[in-house]
Amino acid sequence: MSPEVLAKPVKDTASPPDRKQVRARAARRRRAVVVGARVLLLVAVLGLWEALSRAEVIDPFNFSMPSKIWDQISTWVAHGTAQGSLGQQIWVTLHEALLGWGIGVVTGVVFGIALGRVALLADILGPYIKVLNSIPRIVLAPIFVIWFGLGPASKVASAVVLVFFPVFFNAFQGAREVDRNLIANARVLGASDRRVTLQVVIPSATSWIFTSLHVSFGFALIGAIVGEYIGATQGIGLLVAQSQGTFNAAGVYAAMVILAVVALVAEGLLTFAERRVFRWKPAHTER
Amino acid sequence: MSADTSPAIELRGASKTFRTPSGAPHTAVRDLDLTVGRGEFVAVVGPTGCGKSTTLTLVSGLEEPSDGEVLVAGAPVGGVGGKVGFVFQQDATFPWRTVLSNVMAGPRFRGVPKAEAKEKARDWIARVGLAGFEDRYPHQLSGGQRKRVALAATFVNDPEILLMDEPFSALDVQTRALMSDELLELWEGTGASVVFVTHDLEESIALADRVVVMTAGPATVKQVFDIDLPRPRKVESVRLLPRFIEIYREIWASLGEEVRITRERGAAHVA
C-alpha cells in the first residue's frame, strides 16, 4: 500500500484488510523499536563500562570490565573452576536451592492451610510465627553451618527458612480468603470437612500460593548462595567467596551472571507450570 | 415416627442472632413460624436485608437457630443434611472445575461411584440445556449458563428440599423469565418442596403455591397468601391474567408497608 492511502482519513468504507494490515504494521514497528532500544541500552552500558575501565577512569582492578568477565566465564566453562567443572558447581547450588525450596514450599503450604482452616491452631501458634518471622533469618545461615557442617545440608536449611515464611503467609491468607459461598455450596452438596479442605480451599488458594512460589525460588537461591559463601566445598557461592578472596572482581561478576541465568530459567519453568495449572482461569489476569 | 405425614419443613419460634464485627448482637430473624408442606412451592418476599436468607441457612443446617426449633421431615436439623439442595444468589460454581465436574461434585461428595455420578451429571446437564458444554470452565459461560450449572449441580443430588436464595437476581430480565419457566419444569418432575427467597413480588407470585410476606428486619412472618393460579404455568403469560394482578395488589398492600418502614429507617444501604 502506498503512503498516500494510509495518510487519507479512514472512512467506514475502507476495506477491513487494509486497516488490519495498518495495525499489524504499527504493532510490528513498535516491537522492533522496543527490542532495538533494549539491545542499544545493553550495548551502551557494557560499552561505557568497558571504555571507562580501559581508560582507567574507573579502577579496572576493583570494577573489572565486561571483556574480562566474559573471559572468566569462558575459562570456567572450558577449563572448569578450582573446585571442579562449572556445570558441577551450578548443579550443586541448584540442587541445594531446589531441595530447600521443595521442603519450604511443602511445609509452608501444609502449615498455612492447616492454620487457615483450624482457627484454634492459628490462635495458639500465631504469635510464635510472628516472632520467628521478625527475625532476619539470613543470620541463621552461620548457625546452620555450625549445626550441619560444610555439606549441602546447611545450605538446604538456610533455603528452607527463607522459603517457608512467604509461602506460609500466602497459603494462610489464601485459605482464609476462600469465597464463603463456595464453602457453603460444597457443604450443602455433601462435602465433608476434609473434602472441603482438599477440593475447595486448596484449589482456591493455589493462585495465592503460586504468587509466593515466584518470590520464594529467588529466596531459595539466596539461602543456598549465602550458605555456600559462609562455608562450603562446592557451589557458586563458593566461587564468589574465592574470587573475592583472591581479589578477582571479574570472578564475582561472572558468578553473578551465571546466577542470573539460572534464576531466569527457573522463573520461566515456573511460569510454564503455572499456565498448565491455571487452565481454568480466564486468559486475562482477572475475571 | 410420623415421618411420612409430617410437613417437609417446620420452623417453630426460630430466632437467629449474629454477633456483628463491632461486637453488638444483630437479630436477623425472630420468632419465626413457618410450615412448608411436601411438594409445596413457597416463596418468601420481604424488604431488602430483612433476614430472608437467614431463614434458608437455618433450614439448610449451615447455621443453627439461637432460639426455637427447625424441623425437616419431622426431625430437628443438626448440621447439613443429605436431603437439602441450595441455590445461592452469587455464583457458587467451582471455577477450577469443568461443567461436568461441577455437576458431578455433589454425587462424588456423597460417595456415588464415578461412572454413575458422570452418567447422572450428563443427564442433568442435558436437562438444563447445556449438552455440549461439559468441558467448558465456568468463566467461559454466561451468567445464565452458570446458573444452569448451579441448578443441575443441585438437582443431581435429588433433593427433597430445595432452598433458593434470590437465585436469578443477577440475571437480565429475559433470561430470568426463561430460567423461571425452566425451574418450574424441572421442579414439577421431582416433587421437591421449595423455599424460594426473592425481593421480586412478580417472580414470587408467578412461581409459588404460597407467598410468605416478611416484616422489616428482624424478620418474622407477617402474612401468608395462597396463590390459586392454575399449573402448569408459564411465567410470561401468567403475569397477564387478571387474577395475577388482583393477587399482586393484595400482597403489595401488605409488603409495601414493610418496604416503606425499611426505607424510612435509613437502612437503605440498597444497591
TrEMBL record, chain A:
It holds the Pfam family BPD_transp_1. GO terms for biological process: transmembrane transport. The chain crosses the membrane at residues 32-52, 98-119, 131-150, 156-172, 208-230, 250-272. Keywords: Cell membrane, Membrane, Transmembrane, Transmembrane helix, Transport. InterPro entries: MetI-like, MetI-like_sf. It is a multi-pass membrane protein. GO terms for cellular component: plasma membrane. It is found in: Cell membrane. Belongs to the binding-protein-dependent transport system permease family. This is ABC transporter permease. It comes from Streptomyces mangrovisoli.
TrEMBL record, chain B:
Keywords: ATP-binding, Glycosyltransferase, Nucleotide-binding, Transferase, Transport. InterPro entries: AAA+_ATPase, ABC_transporter-like_ATP-bd, ABC_transporter-like_CS, ABC_transporter_ATP-bind, P-loop_NTPase. GO terms for molecular function: ATP binding; ATP hydrolysis activity; glycosyltransferase activity. The keyword Thylakoid does not apply. Residues 9-241 form the ABC transporter domain. This is Mannosyltransferase.
